[in-house]
Amino acid sequence: MADVQRETEGKDADPLPEEEEPDPEEGGELEAGGEEDDVDGLASFLESEILSGSGAGDHLEQRQEGEEKEDVRMEGDAANNKRKQDSGSDGDGRDGGGSGNEGEQNKRVRREEKRRQAKGKAVAPQIDEGMFSNIPPELFLLIFKFLSSEDLISCALVCRFMNAAASDETLWRRLYCMRWGLASNAKLRERAWKNLYIQQDREDMVEFVRNTPTEFKEYYIQMQAAKRSQAPLPSEVNDDKVILDKTIADQVSSWKNSRGLTDEAVKGHSCSGNTCSYTQIGDAYICEKTGRVHVCDEACREFVLDQSSGLLLCTISGHCFERWLCPDDEWDTYDTDQQQGGVTDEAEPFMGSGRFARAYMLGYNCTDEKELEHALRFC
Amino acid sequence: MASAGESGDGADGKGVTTITIISSDNEAFEVLEAAASMSLTIRHLIEDGCADGGIPLPNVTAGILAKVLEYCSKHVAAVAASSEAGSSSNAADAAAAPEKEEDLASFDKAFIDVEQDTLYDLLMAANYLEVKGLLDLACQKVADMIKGKTPDAIRQTFKIKNDFSPEQEEKIREENQWAFE
User: Fold this and answer.
1) Looking at this predicted complex, what is its ipTM?
2) Which residues of B touch A52 (CB under 8 A)?
3) pLDDT at B57
4) Which single residue of A28, A50, A166, A233 could bond A155 by disulfide (Cβ 3.0 to 4.6 Å)?
5) Residues with Cβ < 8 Å from A364, sequence gap 6 or more?
6) What pTM did the predictor assign?
7) Is A128 on the interface with B (CB under 8 A)?
8) Residue of B116, B150, B166 with shortest CB distance to A131
């Protein structure tokens, strides 16, 4: 790296943030090189070209998008280094002696990062760059519904936007019900489906490990892990029948039988309130043409925005919802309590969403001691 | 294909109607109404009587529109064929049905095997035009590209920036540790 630096002397005078050893010689060259912004820009561009392994095409694209992106990228690299070196938020610890310009470089990086962080807090987490930058959140749900729980977790670690999108209630509810069926007191649960899933998986694992003879332990652990990597089937992805509770599911089945509809998913059918008519059983709406089930409750995602009222309207059931809490809204109040409360936890604002509130709500809806005990286990 | 295009009598005498669709870069495509109607957006426009003189789609370029219409035409033909086979008492026809389904599946597989940029364009077009089958196909393909990857690999594949602060990332990693045990 150092050789390349010297070769292009006078042009790219900036030291590479990645360099561990302080390089006072470079500092000398820095003075000789220009201090103009465009020199810096060119320097950072060349620098990022050298540093990354990816093709030049990407960088050209980034360059066209302006200097900010490069700063962001550099700051990203800088952030990586900080993590590696375990220094706090300051960049000064990185380079040893550092000349005046090196200091400036660091300052610029830090400024950019602070600006970025401030931006991140005030504004919605902007969707990533690259391929996904223009995909609306609803479309993400359509993509994520094909993923297993393991893959959803991986996605949640990618960036903030995907984190919020991958924690969506309907996704985890589907996964939960596929694996364990609908919890009998699901109506009473106050926790996000994602957390329910994780908790149940943990409990299962503990039980398995405790109850199996040693020679089978490894096998059972693998089996459990395999369940996490099981993705929803195409039929389960488009049809909500998997999340019905037993009584409703039975009624739905018998209704379908009476109409000569099987449980198999019908291919190529685009179900929408505008094109199909529905029979309602409880929360479930059954398409009279194909038997496809849509469950309309607070986690309904089949809505469209009704221009005249500004409400979200489910075309299948006719239910209206308030504006769906977008990933950005959720992230702004990032703390554990809120996270556990989940998207729909707006029923009793004065109670807040802490443990007491949840316990209160749970208890309030129970009909007897037994149910109360059962329900409170979730708390 | 009749150049007049509207309500013409097809060679089989079934009276097939064709519709003209115009891409954002002003290229016109003529397709069967049945095929075009696989797009709910277009179907609504037809039903609302906006189809005269062609339907303009300002959001879709010619290249992608061509692909979408290819998908629709193929699928609408397959649906027609299978309903014929279903009502036909010919044993050979009935036996051929699962084969035709396989053909369609392999068509789909080859169809969606495209560059990331094209895949992205197809995804957005299918969403805008509301072609459910194509949308599912594209989403499934993207999901397949995500499956089994680590977060870093996902970032690399789709060129996504990691915008977590180190503390946030650590916290999330801890919370989700169970998945990696």
Assistant:
1) 0.83
2) none
3) 92
4) A166
5) none
6) 0.59
7) yes
8) B116
